[in-house]
Amino acid sequence: MDNNNEPKEVQPEELQKSYLLENFEAIIEQIGEGYGAPLQEELIRRMEKTVAEFHEDVSDLVVQLKDQSEKRQNTLKQMLNSDDQEIVDEIVDKVVDIAEEREMSDYERRLENMDSPKKDDQDKKGDQQKEKRGFFKRKKK
Questions:
Q1: Strands (E), the chain
Q2: CA triple 39-41-44, angle to 5 deg
Q3: Which of 107, 79, 109 is nearest to 94 (CA)?
Q4: What residues contact 44, with CB distance under 8 A and at least 6 apart?
């Protein structure tokens, strides 16, 4: 099975290289032949190095993601399959407590909203009285 996977991986790399070389040659034609072969070789080396580093970085990230997901799955399995029900009960109690606190805060917010319109109405009345004065009705200093 590994032998079957290797040709599949090599072919796209060869296709990518040929595609990049074609585009590179087109760019060199636009720039001109004045730069010569050393420039082309250096650019090809840098491009290959960049692609290789990117491939390594992506591979490392994929491995890290796999490891993290496996750790999470193992932790969940341990929590679900644990014989120690006290730990599970404690976790459930904590979740319930957090939910109750959120409900209380929502209730408290509603109470505050009910009280705040009264204060806003008083402030609006005061603002309206102040707004009734015109520019010419003000006292001169």
A1: none
A2: 105
A3: 79
A4: 21, 24
Using the structure block, give the residue that is written with the tokens 């720039």.
31
Angle between helices 36-81 and 2-31 (to 10 degrees): 140
For 64-95, what is each residue's pLDDT tens digit? 999 888 988 887 777 777 656 667 677 777 77
Cα angle 71, 74, 80 (rounded to 5 degrees) comes to 140
Does the model's pTM come out above 0.85? no
Domain spans in the chain, listed from the N-terminal domain onward: 1-54, 81-118
Which residues contact residue 88 at a Cβ distance below 8 angstroms, ignoring those fewer than 6 apart? 79, 82
Residues with Cβ within 8 Å of 82's Cβ and at least 6 positions away in sequence, in order, are: 88
